[in-house]
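Quick check before the chapter quiz. The format below is the same one you will see on the exam, so make sure you can read both the input and the output lines.
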Amino acid sequence: MSSSEQLRFTAGEKARIALLVARMAKRGLADDRQFGGRVDQSDLQRKVERIENQARRRAATSKNGK
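Here is the expected output.
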């Protein structure tokens, strides 16, 4: 995807991503090491990627439908 072609998220997707980012930040703050690294956030990152993939599929189908 080029830099000029950005994903368009629905309001619900934006809210879900914001919630997941907030949960990632909370987990990061809960890490007791100075430079982090012990708290696993891969599950939340996969959820964000899934939302992004859904937006990509929607953009591709809307582009093909026009």
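If your answer matched, good. The chain has a mean pLDDT of 87.
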